[in-house]
Amino acid sequence: MKRSPDPKASPGCALAVLRKVLLVATAITMSLSATSQAFATSPGYPYPQPRKFYVSKNGNNTDGLTWATAWNEMDQIKWTGIDPQNYDSLTIDGGVGRMIYRKPMQVQVRPYAIPVRIAVSAEPGHNGQVVIAPGSQSNGIEITGGVQLNGSKRSGIFVYGAKKGITVNSNAPYPTSVKNIEVSHCTDAGLFVSPSYYPLGMSQLILHDNATNVVTQQTGAPGGAQLSKCWIYNGSERNNFDGIRIDGSTSGPPTPSVVLNSCVLGPGLRDGINNLSIARPSLTNCLLINSRRNNISSYSVNLQNVTSFMTRLNPSRSAHSCIKLQASPQPYNMIGSSVKKTIAYGGMVDIPISISYPYPPGSTRPFPITVEQNTQYSTTGNTTALAPTMADPKFVSHVRLLPNHTPVQYLMGLDFSLRPDSPALGTGSEVTSIKQLLRTFD
Which ranges constitute the DSSP H helices of 252-398? Predict the structure, then answer.
């Protein structure tokens, strides 16, 4: 027979259950409190906060944690104390107008997925130009990877008269970028980039009047320098230096090389790009202005929306080439160039009509190049390699009657944007003048 519940027992049972719940809750609270206390007293809790270090000629060179205690030269920075895993950063004093440092900056931070940020100060009184002038026996800035270096404004860092202005040697798979730096009158190279398996971002650099403004090495690695919104030039035609020189092996399949996007090469350069390696440079939305020998010299190249300008002859009254492609020692099926939506005004088109082919002996093949929607005018040489006919692109600046010895300073002021009635609308570089390029710097 089923027993009916005793109504008098129900309140007692409820109290017992409530008592058990309270005991369990108290035990959990005590356990959480003990756990929190253990974490609070253990090393590393709370987590270390990011630290901001400082470099200033006015610092007392102690711990680098304030302007007053800042490290007072580039060679006094305690790099081992700057921890990328802790999101530490380094701020450089530019003074009121400028601050000059006489020792090289040799960045020695530990490579990490989150790069250490090094930047010129934006604070009033500290936001002038940082000048690094270590002399011709030392490099200005040496970077080994895992760093974001920013001058914080156009030419916020100025490297002058060093051996190599900036050297980048990074094979670690961590972000590396360099921005807003001007490099001038260095005796070996303005920017030197070693082979890398990863892209190395360089943006808003002004490199001029260096003994070769950019040197990049290629050994088959797929990465390397990626230049964006950079201006590379010589301020005087007496400085007979190249814009970009690519060194490396001449055997093996072509590999990606230096990549240029929205850059200006020239004026005043000997060669805009001088490449005798297997590397294949790529240029997009770039403006090339009147090199003394060649705007581009390479075995192979990829050009997309490029504008090339040259006077009829160079200042020495010799022919110069808007593009020079040479027969490669590589197998035929490994080579090839691409020139698309490009404007070539003036200069020689130095492209072979055909190249020799080993089998059968004595045979030839057409030179391997893909062209599309190009415009050329006042060019000489193998002009049909770029486009079937001549058409004046009609730049805003009237360049047709410019003399061979047009001064570099005058060339810097030209506007290569297209007039509304241009037959080349929709092609050529989006960067149409040096002035326009510099306005885009942030």
Answer: none
pTM here is 0.87
Instruction: Sketch the domain layout of the chain as residue ranges.
Output: 52-385
Q: pLDDT by residue for the chain (442 residues), tens digit each?
A: 444 444 444 555 555 555 665 555 555 555 545 444 444 444 554 567 899 999 999 999 999 999 999 999 999 999 999 999 999 999 999 999 999 999 999 999 888 888 999 999 999 999 999 999 999 999 999 998 789 999 999 999 999 999 999 999 876 677 789 999 999 999 999 999 988 877 889 999 999 999 999 999 877 676 778 999 999 999 988 888 999 999 987 776 677 789 999 999 999 999 999 998 888 899 999 999 999 999 999 988 999 999 999 999 999 999 999 999 987 666 555 578 999 999 999 999 999 888 777 667 777 888 889 999 999 999 999 999 999 999 999 999 999 999 999 999 999 999 999 999 999 999 999 999 999 999 999 9
Domain spanning 52-385: CATH 2.40.128: no
Token digits of residue 19:
């008592």
Kindly list the strands in the beta sheet with 181-184, ordered across the sheet, starting from the edge strand earlier in the chain: 98-101, 129-132, 157-160, 181-184, 206-208, 231-233, 264-265, 287-289, 307-309, 343-345, 375-377
